[in-house]
């Protein structure tokens, strides 16, 4: 019984840690990645859906406000640059990219991974120095191809 109660409070604590207030949920719902998705489709040749890992943005309105400029826009430009080169485009298309997930984590260095058709971009969106420049992300993606 004590174990069940402890697990319940652990779950409740984890849920509370990742819950977002109304303004955060509204800000995430209002994010528009249309420009980036169009830029990717125009260069990559097929649709790629961009989304955010909402729990990782909990409590960080600044990060939400930078999701497009430091996340989707940089990713779209990096993908366009890679696709400008025929071999680069072929290598990226071979990964069968269908989605990009933006993850907010200011505590670790910026990372990018591609697995099962999903590119995961993990950066500190509200940090001034914990995110990729366009050239850095281009290079990091190329290293994965």
Characteristic terms for this protein:
145 residues; 7 helices; 4 strands; 14% strand; globular; disordered N terminus
* Total number of strands: 4
Q: Low-confidence runs (pLDDT<50, min 5 residues)?
A: 1-17
Structural class: alpha/beta
Number of domains: 1
Sequence of secondary-structure elements: HHHEHHHEEEH
Oligomer: single chain
Q: What is the alpha-carbon Rg in Å?
A: 17 Å
Shape: globular
Please give the alpha-carbon distance between the first and last residues: 51 Å
* Count, helices: 7
Query: In percent, how much strand structure appears in the residues?
Result: 5-15%
Main sheet makeup: 4 strands, mixed
Write out the strand line-up for the largest beta sheet, numbering strands in chain order: 1-2-4-3
Q: Helicity range of the residues? A: 40-55%
Mean of pLDDT? 87
Architecture overview:
- The protein has 145 residues and is an alpha/beta fold.
- It has one domain (20-144).
- The chain has 7 helices and 4 strands; from the N terminus they run H-H-H-E-H-H-H-E-E-E-H.
- A 4-stranded mixed beta sheet has the order 1-2-4-3, with helices on one face.
- A hairpin with a 2-residue loop joins strand 3 and strand 4 (118-123).
- Helix 3 (34-44) packs parallel to helix 5 and helix 5 (67-83) packs across helix 7.
- The longest helix has 17 residues, at 2-18.
- The chain is globular.
